[in-house]
Amino acid sequence: MHPAPLRRIPAEPEGTDSGQDARTGRPHPHNLLENAIGKNDLGKTDPREKLIVALDVSTVVAAQRIISLLGDSVLTYKVGVQLYTAQGPQLVRDLIASGRRVFLDLKYHDIPNTVASAVNEAAQLGVSMLTVHAAGGGRMLRAAADAAHAINPRLHVLAVTVLTSLDEKDLEKIGVRGTVLDEVLRLSALALAGGCNGVVASAREASHLRAELGVSFDIVTPGVRPIGTGHGDQVRVVTPAEAIVAGASHIVVGRPITEAPDPAAEARAILSQISS
Ligand code: C5P
To answer: How many domains does the chain divide into?
Structure first.
């Protein structure tokens, strides 16, 4: 059975179109702009602007269940390699058409031309944020940023620096000398010089990044655990409030919300902890 269409979030006016150009089937340019993170009518103080929920499931039905339970408490969903590989771009289109924003976390890493082409497609889907690997190098980062911003100047291109699953011994084995923090700072500087809008980094690195590289870029932080919830397979965890105080602009939360007995209540609890 084909799953029912996603219900629009209540904030979205009823009776508007699907958000797509009838001729091309692609999002209208105005929708691309409205979907940009942190720049809409809600203003920067709405804590929902800082919360991204990871949809780490394999089916549309499972994703829709989470989305409908969360209702208007969540504006932005992260679609990563698991869900995208299983279900493809249609779920991304449906999320955007229903008024949500999508952070497409596919961590592109290839030659500049190939990454630029993939980013072009992602931008035309109407996603608000996407990831590339900073280790792809300066030319790849510039190609990604230029391709994204040619379609949507507000699309946030984020560079993944050092995966939090890697430690210094792992880095040494792939030929990287020095500390994880040094490498994160080096790759972040490269990404920002290449026109990227921010980085994905642990909260542990966020304060150093702010001190070294300034305030006007995104630091998107996974590995966040509200007080009293299990850690799962995350090792270096921080609370939502600690991540924001450390300098994160956005927190990514998966299982603590999606596997909670009452996901909406858990999301609201986190939102109250990061309200400023
Ligand atoms: O369920 P949990 O809150 O651990 O989910 C965190 C999300 O952030 C997952 O989608 C995971 O892939 C992602 N992530 C991470 N660590 C990174 C980069 C991404 O946990 N370094």
So the answer is: 1
